[in-house]
Amino acid sequence: MTKRAKWIVVIAIALCITGMALYPSVKNSLLAPDLATGDGASAPEYALRRAALNINAEIVKQQALVDKIIRIGTTLPDEEVDLSFESSGKVTAIYFREGAQVKGGDLLAKINDQPLQAQLRKLEAELPLARDRVYRQRTLLEKDAVSQEAYEQVSTEYEKLLADIELVRSHIAQTELRASFDGVIGLRSVSEGAFATPATVIAKLTRITPLKIEFSVPERYASDIAQGTPITFTLESADGVSRKRPATVYAVESKLDMETHSLRVRATYPNEDGAIQPGRYVSVEVTKQEIRDALAIPSESIIPEMGKNIVYLFKDGRAQPVEIATGLRTESHVQVQSGLTPGDTLITTGVMQLRTDMEVVIDQIN
């Protein structure tokens, strides 16, 4: 590179550095005429107006404040059982219709019992003769014509015959499948002519009136749940509309779950029309405390500061800090026990940017 070229490079670098140093002052001098607005506001007034913070606010008023637990639960049948025979054999008849209501004790199905019926008839045919033997031996015993031992022998044979008849009848009863309680029969899994064993599930029998609601609450809420505690639950209906339904806690698990440290709870709901099926997810609400006329404010409007709770009020276009004492807390609101009065205008947004006497502009007020 020649000496002349080196000087050109040095001069160019010097000009760049000088331009960068002078740029802020030149920019301010060019923008200075624009600080005045169309209504004649001066530069300091314009800068102050630009410093105003846009916020949202709401009028402090009394309202109902409810502290509640919201959990996910499941609907369970009041009773449910897998129906099966107590003995093995070929299914000869099915008397129920799938999905039908049945009464406790109704005959639902039957397996082949012909050998047992034949054995029962044989034993019952021997019964009159055995009864006569006992009668004759008793008559002879009263006349001292037979020994006590002879009478007891025929009497024992008679009692044994009665026991054999009772045993066969119980075996016949095991060939009959009857409903254990009032409920709804599910889908059957066998047909007539199939061979069934005690391990063969014929169908499910379910009672859904009343219905059970099962859910769990965290350990910290365990003391708030007890037998008789009222709850409400909601589930989405076919039309997409949900409504709250009341239920009552009837049982609480005896200990906390060792893995989740939660307490399992069950409530009961009448479900008189049978409209709600078991196995559905529901949203469960447990009310811990309710204050109908609380002075409540949004929790995000509170600033913890040096052990105090501070909120900002809108007064004459400026933000004014106020110390408050709080009470009941919910997920979204906090009860104010002192520091505010109904009708105050509370600033609810931008609170972390606020300072005392800071100029603010309300965009929206509730």
Structural class: alpha+beta
Annotated CATH topology of the largest domain:
OB fold (Dihydrolipoamide Acetyltransferase, E2P)
| Low-pLDDT ranges | 30-50
> In angstroms, what is the radius of gyration?
44 Å
Number of domains: 3
Strand line-up in the sheet with most strands: 2-9-12-11-10-13
Enumerate how many helices there are, as a single number.
4
Q: What's the helical proportion of residues?
A: 25-40%
CATH architecture of the largest domain: Beta Barrel
Compute the number of strand runs: 19
Identify the overall geometry. elongated
The SSE order reads HHEEEEEHHEEEEEEEEEEEEEE
What's the CATH H-level homologous superfamily of the largest domain? Answer: RNA polymerase II/Efflux pump adaptor protein, barrel-sandwich hybrid domain
Largest sheet: 6 strands, antiparallel, barrel
CATH class of the largest domain: Mainly Beta
Terminal CA distance reads 74 Å
- Give the mean pLDDT: 88
- Beta-strand percent range: 35-45%
